[in-house]
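USER: My hope is that you can spare some time for a protein that puzzles me. I am handing you a single protein, as its sequence and its fold in token form. Walk me, if you will, through where the backbone shape changes along the chain. The protein I mean follows directly.
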Amino acid sequence: MKNVLIVGGAGYVGGAITDLILESNYNVRVYDALIYEDSFRKPVDFVYGDVRDHEKLSRQLDWADAVVWLAAIVGDGACQLNPELTREVNQDSVCWLADNYNGRIVFMSTCSVYGAQDKELDENSPTNPLSLYAETKLEAEKCLKHKNAIIFRLGTLFGVGDLYSRIRLDLVVNILTVKAYTEGVIKVFGGDQFRPLLHVKDVARAVVMNLETEHKGVYNLQRQNVRIMDLAYQVRNHFPDIEIIHTDMPFQDTRNYRVSSSKARDTFSYDSIHSIDEGIGELKYLVETQRIKDLSSIRYSNVAYLKEHTEELIEKKFKKAEVA
């Protein structure tokens, strides 16, 4: 295997994956619509394109020995802005891939497919998607069921993936760190809900480990299951002077789940190496050294940005672009 196509490789997760695959001496090509980015400046072969443009994407699939599929509208709120667009990108494009590509596929799903459940969940646990985002990811999984595909259900991501890609400030570890710095206060609603947390660079490690394996099917990926309230206190360890304000009012996000990654550990010796404290430290460094010019910019939030740009995305579905 030589050629790896990373669909959606310019994004938050894609940045970390692209770097690590390059270090592993594969030929890498990124296919991306640059939804949140103004440019792609890594020294990597790049094709500007939309996953709904099947003619353009087909030419890239002909080149690829393996496809890492990251392209998606991500997050509950972002997906609800335009359900039709969400289904086209998150679900229909993956089913088209399954019908038109026979190489190795590495696909990113989400632990959100489990919804709200009280016990620790493994890959055989019932799914209970509570959002369009989770529904479309689960449907995409079904399309890949009989392919040479490994599917990673990712926990809630955090940390810094690379030096180029847009940092996401709408993820719980990242946003709590920013709030601690900018406001000196962390507000926690409810707080008993669990999230399975995972550093974005640990996603990249799992991908590279499985580009050429024969492992198929679904695998949970997480580092540890953490209560939101406990996470707030962990952030305070890095900002000792901040105040934590707790209210029993439930947060609008009703997901609550703990997952096990034992299947990944047992099957391909997966282990996370990047801690939550490391991720908090990465974000603290960025904000304290003022390396993010405007922390309030909508660019760093999927739902806030797409509220203003969804119509633009629909209109440019097959916009012509040069191959860099």
